[in-house]
Amino acid sequence: MPKTQKKSSNCIKTGFECSFCGKVVKNEATFIRHSCKQKKKIDDRNNVPNRIAYQAYSRFYTRNKKTAPDISNFESSKVYGAFVRFGEFVVLNKVSSIEIFIDYVIASKRGIDKWCDISLYTDFLASMAKSETWDRAIERNIYIMQEWATKNNREVKNFYREMTPSGLVHVISLGKVSPWTFMLSESGQDLLAQCNSEQLSIINKIFDFKIWKHRFSIEKSNVECAKKFLSEEGL
């Protein structure tokens, strides 16, 4: 005889019983409005932060060569709330390379309660930029600029020209742009020159100017290629 799926409620003589917490209510309308912790977790499964949370939880187990528990075990786990907060952090900061960031925080060996530290995220952005080739960085940045231009009915070449210094700090903090564009394009350099000491300090914490100037001095041929491309794009 085939098994039947467990229903979220049972209508019994005395009323309606929640199969998650066992609470019984007499009125159907009251039951429909009823929400317990376990029921809410199931209702929230499709929320983006919750999906990211389970993705990170599963990845943590597989990275440690263990079989990832199913989602119901995750929802009953003591670290459920911490992983959901991490998912909310990822959404709030619009992390683009989610899988890579998950692997990065796991490899950091920090506790799950530290995964939402903004300092860890800025370290991740700096690490990503260091490993990114000049052409890949510019390709990614141009795509961001094209999105901005389409959305705001502007020209790509004016991306930095129409941006404020605080706007530059914001897009850098989100990992949207690379030193390959804002340090090597004329418009990017002009915008950097408008930043105050506090804004420059924030940018420097993410992309150390000394390190990048040293890299540019070593990769001279790449710098020339990047500058030529950016100039041809009117940036």
Report on the structure:
The chain is mainly alpha-helical and 235 residues long. It folds into three domains: 9-40; 44-115, no CATH class; 126-232. Helix content is 62%, strand content 4%. The chain has 14 helices and three strands. It has helices at residues 28-33, 37-43, 48-63, 71-75, 80-92, 98-107, 118-131, 134-152, 165-173, 179-182, 186-194, 197-206, 209-218, 220-232, and strands at 9-12, 15-18, 24-25. A three-stranded antiparallel beta sheet has the order 1-2-3. α3 packs across α5, α3 (48-63) crosses α6 and α9 runs parallel beside α12. The longest helix is centred in the middle third of the chain and has 19 residues, at 134-152. The protein is elongated and about 80 Å long. The protein starts with 8 loop residues before the first strand and ends with a helix.
Number of domains: 3
Please count the beta strands (DSSP E, at least 2 residues each): 3
The helix fraction, in percent, is 55-70%
- Straight-line distance between termini: 70 Å
How many H/I helical runs? 14
User: How do the SSEs run, as a string of H and E?
Assistant: EEEHHHHHHHHHHHHHH
The global form is elongated
Low-confidence segments, given as residue ranges, are 1-9
Q: What portion of the residues fall into strands of 2 or more residues?
A: under 5%
Major pleated sheet:
3 strands, antiparallel
Radius of gyration: 24 Å
Mean pLDDT rating: 83
Secondary-structure-based class equals mainly alpha
With strands numbered from the N-terminus, the spatial order across the biggest sheet is 1-2-3
